[in-house]
Amino acid sequence: GMGLSVGGAWALGVCLAVVAVVVTLVLVVVTHRRRLMDWFDKRFVYPGEPPEPVGFLKGNFAPTAEEVTLEDLEVTRGKLPDSLNGAYLRNGPNPYFKPNGKYHWFDGDAMVHGVRIKGGKASYANRYVDTARLSQEKAYGRAAFAKIGELTGKTGLLALLSESLKVKLGLLDKGKGSGCANTSLAFHGDKLLALYESDLPYEIKVMCTGAIETIGRATITAAEMNGGRKAPKGFDQFTAHPKRDERTGELHFFGYNLREAPHLNYGVLDRAGNLVRSIPIDLPHGPAMMHDMALTETYAVFLYMPLYFRPKEMVGGEGFPFVFDPEMPSKFALLPRCAEDASQIQWFDLPSGMIFHTSNAWDDQGDGRVHLYACSTSTYKGVGDLISSNSTRSPRSWEQGVERDRTAARFLPGAHGGLNVKSLGEEEEESNARTNELLTVDFAVNFKSGKDLLNLSGSDEVTSSTSLLHFTFDPRTGIATQAKILDPKDCGNGDAYLLDFPTINPRYLSKRQKYVYLATFCDGMKTNGVVKCDVLCEDGEDRVRGRIHFGSGRFGGECTFVPRDGGKEEDDGYLTTFVYDDEEEKSFLVVYDARTMSEVAEVDVGVRVPYGFHGLWVDEGEMRRIGGGLGLGGEMRRRLRC
User: Is 506 helix (H, G, I), strand (E, B) or coil?
Assistant: First the structure.
């Protein structure tokens, strides 16, 4: 008995000692968790001193450090139209903290640059969107979340591990949202939204000066359903390119989920902003990057390009967790807008390519075909070549028969920065040919590289481009066709190598329309102008009906179409954009006549506006409805004469 007592006491002592050690370790970790994570990041994730920034952190891509408000801007040329009253807002990345490692344009924190125009006068303001990600990193004191540009090879795995440890230790909370809100803007249900495709929208409001103020992260959940119908499932992701039907007042959107099925979900918000439809859609080859969609009066059109999410590529060494498979088809899905589930979806296959942006789609009232216009990397011998295929109700792989340029997939250009496909040696190419040519891609500009990868158009590796293509889909026969209708080299805008950021009159969304305005990219992600393309003219005719050239040493971005009040013609309106002058090192808001493509007015913004992504025009009525008013007290409103 005595032996057992002694043994029991010894065992109890050991247990207590172990518990004491564990408790001590836990207390040490909790007490010094920030120091431990700083050590881990410095030792394993970001070893060494960060070199000087290149690429997307240099020149006019570099972030601006200050938030400013400037009133009574100088109109340096022309005259602002008396009828042009509202606010031009443009979203884009502006990293608050210096990146720790690799950086891609998608990674920057959202900053909205706004120009308020009324009565021929203008004011400018820029403000960050106060996302949960930004506010947490401000509290942390440095960049703390994993970035897209970092997700390559073992470094990417360590960056994800670091973020996961920070979450488990209570230093970060991803449940509040981890998106940047930096891609685009939308107005719906009397709400102004800042969008980023891997997160929910952020609701903002615009002030009289053009400054925005963040209201908070939105939720996309169903309103109470009547008649015993099941409420649609809510969303955690929301595309940066929803489509608003002015006829019905609905906003159509999707969210794609890389981690769990269903990998695609389609949603519809009614005129008031309530979720009234949510349809999960199975993707035949697993998750993929899906940036944009299209909408007709009958169908929602989804673009399933062969840029697949394959995390094992990152685990294997130097790869990014997306691979582009040039032997797989570009798949297009037509889902009737009245569908209650995905059983009515119809798939169409066409040769591989990458589409970031669509311009428009509509139903042919004569033969029932669906017409889609989009900017694609898919390659052809020349303008006018028609390629067609049959489709089936169930997805299938693309059949051989179209000759491909194996080098064309080395770089997939796109207006958001493009994708650098991993260069392959001859042995790797032979191996790749035996494994469906899965090509790893890299979104980032590498700090450690001596080469400035931003100037992609000047690189020998750039052998593909982005052109405007016309797609048709026949739901009755299952036949799809595609043809290139405008190539960059045929647009007449200097050394343009890429066409993207397509813009139309928003009143013609989902309707048959004639004109598409395209940014002409001339040097990496810099644009030197805009071309006006007639998509309905006869084959053989010159489709370019007008050109804008920003001028020597001047570069811009996407133009936003502002319909003229009372305008009856499709091109009766204005194009607005920011233009940066390299020599003067400052930016201008420029307004063009969308019909004649001539300059109407130029406004000196007074500061540098970094290059960015997508813009939106908010008219007077919309400004008053956002957030229940213009967001200012009576005294301030009178002072600014809102």
Answer: helix
